[in-house]
Amino acid sequence: MKRLAPLALAAVLTAALAATGCSLDSSGDTPAGTVKVVVGYQSKTINTVTAGTLLRAQGYLEQRLQKITERGGAKYQVEWQDYDTGAPITAQMVAEKIDIGSMGDYPLLINGSRTQANERSKTALVSVTGYNPKGALNMVVVPTDSTATSLNELSGQKVSASVGSAGHGTLVQALSRAGIDPAKGVEVLNQQPQVGATALESHQVGALSQFVAWPGLLVFQNKAKLLYDGAELNVPTFHGVVARRAYTAEHPEVLEAFLAAQLDATKFLNDKPFEAAKIVADGSGLPQEVVYLYNGPGGTSFDVTVKPSLVQALKGDVPYLKSIGDFADLNIDGFADEAALRTVYGAQGYGDYDQAKASTVNPSRVTGTDRVCGRSVDGAPTAGELWLDGADRPEPAADATCLLRAVAAAKAKGTVIRAAYIPDAELGTRWFADKASWLREGQTYLPFTTPAAAQRYRQAHPAAVVVSYDQAVTEVRG
To answer: Where does this protein have coiled-coil stretches (predicted)?
Structure first.
């Protein structure tokens, strides 16, 4: 990975805009007396859905703006622009062509730095869409036939990543912790996610480091296997919303309507995660099983509040920003501006903003009763879910062993299993049960997102033995 000069990085952003193949939903010229708002989003970055795919599909923003019109206010026209990464959204905001956008934490940092030189393009971080307190939203995957079991084995190889993205930032941090110089130890190919996925499948690269939903998608499609879980960094990662200050100063009611609409979408997702996953799947083209992996209970924490831990994590990302280019210093405390969100939060009846901001509990957790083990789940951190074909919604499982028993029972009846989800026993990352690395310790079965995680557990628990997923299902059936 080479250090990029400012002009070179600008070229990267411009190239990303040209290569993204963005789809524009434009109504042409804006009628006189109509206020236009252009929203940039990423339909396949499913932790921004409450400010993008789900928000758009439900029409919450248009509904909020229509209420302003009905009260005697202006008329509004919303234009949605869909991109693959945050870089082209930032390029368009620099050009003052996007008013509100959503992206991951590292792109947010770049956005704040790149836009601040011009008062018309200067942005503020106004809300969060979703976060993971440990960093599990970014992962490194390798081809299914790769023999690599740790990051150290990537030394000297080509790795695909979108430079400036959250996935790339995680790769840089992870390599550094593993004792590998990110600039010399591997050759990073700056590729859009879909290009990198093709490169991985054709073995043009030894690994791919990306943000959600790409790792889960490739693993679900049996095109890759997980090598590194970003949760190992134990550093929060998140996605958020930025808005151009000049635009929101001229149209503060638009920002308030957007934030109220985002709250609508967040409540809908947390109240009805399965239904929301179907809507997002239809809008993004992603399999619903993959969307529900991240957007389902126990996955991403969808919480709009700008938490101190997330702001602090953004400050910790500054060295990464410096490593890829000569960016202007960014006052992150000034960049994070939650004033409008705080006002809207209270006005919409969501309660005490500061209390919500202080909470780190995932608003969406697995609940109900495990019918196989006969136990109440009630948001237990070990709880998973089993999605059977034809079922109205997934069934809760109290823990990994109970999930395996439910899978065995379904298989015995010949029922097709759409997906089985279970949290990693070490890091808590929600993952596909059939793609996990399994151990058996006595009569207890333990799932891990990666072989490295399972090996760490075995070092501390030598009695634990390796079992395959199919073997574990057979054993619990017996």
So the answer is: none
Q: Cα(80)–Cα(67) distance, rounded to whole angstroms?
A: 20
The Cα 45–Cα 58 span in angstroms is: 17
Long-range contacts of 408-413 (CB under 8 A, 24+ apart): 408/473, 408/474, 408/476, 408/477, 409/372, 409/477, 410/386, 411/473, 411/477, 412/477
Task: Yes or no: say if 73 and 217 are a contact pair by the CB < 8 Å rule.
Answer: no
Helix (H, G, I), strand (E, B) or coil at 452: helix
Number of domains in the chain: 3
Residue 188 lies in domain? 138-233
Cα separation of 293 and 291, whole Å? Answer: 5
The strand pairing partners of 242, in sequence order, are: 101, 125
Both 207 and 242 in one domain: the answer is no
Are residue 150 and residue 288 in the same domain, yes or no?
no
387 and 318 inside one domain? no
Let me know if residue 364 belongs to a domain: no
Say yes or no: 254 and 127 in one domain.
Answer: yes
Here the tokens at position 162 are 């979108």
Which pLDDT value is given to residue 29? 67
Q: Provide CB contacts within 8 A for 378, sequence distance 6+.
A: 367
In the structure encoding, which two tokens stand for residue 340, read together?
């409008």
Are 385 and 424 part of one and the same domain?
yes
Res 8: pLDDT:
41
Q: Percentage of the chain with pLDDT > 70? A: 94
Please give the Cα distance from 104 to 162 (Å, whole number).
12
Asked, for residue 430, whether it belongs to a domain, the answer is yes
In a domain, 1, yes or no: no
A 10 A CB-CB count for 10 gives 15
